[in-house]
Amino acid sequence: MDYYTIDFETANASLASACSIGIVGVENGKIVSTRHILINPDEEFSYFNVGIHHITPDMVRDALKFNEVWPEIESVFADQLVFAHNAGFDFAVLNKCLEKYGLVKPTFRFGCTVQIARKLWPNHELINHRLHTVAGHLEIELDHHNALSDASACVALIERGMKMHQVDTPRELYDRLELRFGLFSPTKYRNTTRLPRRRKQSVFIAQEFFLDSLFVLSGSPSKLQKSELIKQIEAWGGFVDTRVDVHTDYLVVLENAKKEHIMQVLALQAQGSIIALLTEEELEEKMK
User: Is the CATH code 3.40.250.10 the one for domain 203-288?
Assistant: First the structure.
């Protein structure tokens, strides 16, 4: 497949409570496979969620649980390019469901059609970039919160963007829009990102020393603008975030670094997380 689009619905507020998934496969700009699978979440349903997607406990009582569905859909994610609308939610659902049943996590790159929509149709053109709003603007047929319909609408959105920018692949579209794919793997989860506004060209990875490593820059650099330092890190294949958590690989301690960042790293290290502390000089030395 050139790419897949997916959509999850959940039974309640828990990300591990997937109750349906829609999957669409695309080749040469055409939908060539579709799947809509109901999932027994093995959890209680909330009235709020049922009111949104209309999937009831009775509908999934005899359905397979996620660990039983996974062998059927695992190939969709293995070394593939996968999109979702508001990717942070859908791939967090996937992550939690895999952890819930102790399943091995696949490795793949993913994109977000919300990010694409924000670039293609800015705020002055649309009141928001929710899927039903974008679909209405583009006159795309949509049965919102039906997982397969939502996944199909993502395809229409991607293909429209490719046509607008006269590119042949979604990878070229992401590059043209100055977006960067997220990473899902057994050890790392990096959400899709927008590149700094000042950048006129997309990320060119000159080296791979820091490939897919997540950096947090605390404080202000003494020699460069922070935006320039971010560009250098990205040129080496890294990601930059503002929050320290278990996914952080490096905390760069700059001038006037926040003590709370350092304390957070020390606490996470004590819990077993492998996070390196670097000074600005040490980072520069590694980048030579």
Answer: no
